[in-house]
Amino acid sequence: MKKVVLIFLTIIITLGSELPISAAQKQMINASSAIMVDATSGQVIYQQNANKQLPVASISKLLTVAVLHDELAHHKINLNTKVRVTTEIAQMSNNPNYSRIEMKEGQSYSVKQLLSAALVKSGDGATVALVTAGGDSVASFTTKMQKKAKELGLKKAHIINPTGLTNADMGVFKNNKISDNSENEMSATDVSILTRYLIKAYPRLVKIASQKKASFLTSSGTTKSFDNLNKMLPGGEYTVPGVTVTGLKTGTSESAGASFVSTANYKGHIIITVVLHANGDNNDARFVQTQKLYEMLKNDYHLQTIKVPQEMQTVTVSNGTMTKASAKPQRISVWTKKKIGSYTLSQTIRNKNKWGKIDAPVRKGQQVGTLNLTSSSVKSITNEPLTYPQYSNQNIAKGNFFQRFFH
């Protein structure tokens, strides 16, 4: 296992204090639960009942994709792996009571096609087909999902299947050992942690989820185009000026209500929002409440920049043509309404050898460390310090004998 060493270089600066948020302000989003997070640092910008365990319906498919990513990374399957549609899967995919993509029995679809169907149209039958790609049953894949949830620290995750349907609605795929009305549950915090993990580990996911349309060969033998259920993508009905929504997943059921997790680019930052069980007359209420979160970010928050101390702007290199590598960023930022209070900044060096240095060669753009910010005024979704990755600004080749000797 590669070692990670913490450099105990800290800086403590006291600025103005953050004003407390009133109870009325905390309930600005008309939903059972909501959270807004900066994906880079993990900072919680806004939260409302964020740790409450709630049904999440098809948002569950994000955890399904997380497990599939592991299967892809370990080369158990690939995007071109073909999955044959069984009688049972075909029946589910053609059932009008479900989120359906009309698949034909005996037809084979690639993992890539099924991913699009699961993320763009939220197809339940397509999702069941997808989880069988590596030879799993629904039950064995669900066990993998439960294990992945624990690995990611999803403390409120209760997972019974890969689709988000109730146990009864899974039909022949249901678990006979649990109640029919049991269904997947998570907290908004859990969903944001899962989303942050996915967009870092599996950036292709965002590209798939951001497709405005996806084409699919239906059971009738014709190719049909499906609109993305996300109405906040560029050009959609609920866009927010200045904010570019890139994904990610809707969820709808009787108990989960209208729910939505979004990813967006704003001022050079990737923002995650989660709205669970939006209150309103129709499913678009989830987009209206997500709009409110982004408008809140634009109007009520600003980025406070913090200069990184000079001694944390470099890392020491061993056996290279140079002994120091400059690292970026030289400034980091925090979302705030007022200036944050006292904070501590430290640096963690990545892949450090026994002499306390990074071995050459070092590539420009290579992650060489992490900056860690702790303050009582800001909070991360993991209750750990906010983290900011550091990257080398230069290439440093491995030195010759004399360079290595004298360095």
Please describe what this structure looks like.
This protein is an alpha+beta fold and 407 residues long. The protein is 24% helix and 30% strand. It contains 10 helices and 20 strands. The protein has a 7-stranded mixed sheet, with no helix packed on it. Strands 3-2-12-11-10 form a 5-stranded antiparallel sheet, sandwiched between helices. The chain has a two-stranded antiparallel ribbon with strand order 4-7. α2 runs parallel beside α7 (188-201) and α4 runs antiparallel to α5 (124-131). The longest helix has 16 residues, at 285-300. Residues 1-26 have low confidence and may be disordered.
Key words describing this protein structure:
globular; alpha+beta; 5-stranded antiparallel beta sheet; 7-stranded mixed beta sheet; 407 residues
Q: How does the SSE layout of this entry go?
A:
Layout (H helix, E strand, L loop, with lengths): L3 E10 L9 H4 L4 E8 L5 E5 L5 E2 L5 H13 L8 E3 L2 H7 L14 E3 H10 L3 H8 L6 H15 L32 E2 L1 H14 L2 H6 L3 E5 L5 E5 L16 E10 L3 E10 L2 E10 L6 H16 L1 E6 L6 E5 L5 E5 L2 E6 L6 E8 L7 E2 L7 E9 L10 E7 L8 H6 L1
Parallel strand pairs: 14-18
Antiparallel strand pairs: 1-17, 2-3, 2-12, 4-7, 5-6, 8-9, 10-11, 11-12, 13-16, 14-15, 15-20, 17-19, 19-20
Helix pairs in contact: 2-6, 2-7, 3-5, 4-5
Categorize the overall geometry.
globular
Q: How large, in whole angstroms, is the Cα Rg?
A: 23 Å
Q: What is the string of SSEs from the N terminus onward?
A: EHEEEHEHEHHHEHHEEEEEHEEEEEEEEH
Q: What assembly state would you assign to the polypeptide chains in this entry?
A: single chain
Major β-sheet, in short?
A: 7 strands, mixed
Amino-to-carboxy terminus distance: 26 Å
**Averaged pLDDT, please?**
89
β-strand percent reads 25-35%
What's the total helix number? 10
The low-confidence parts are: 1-26
Structural class determined from secondary elements: alpha+beta
The tally of strands reads 20
Percentage of residues assigned to helices: 10-25%
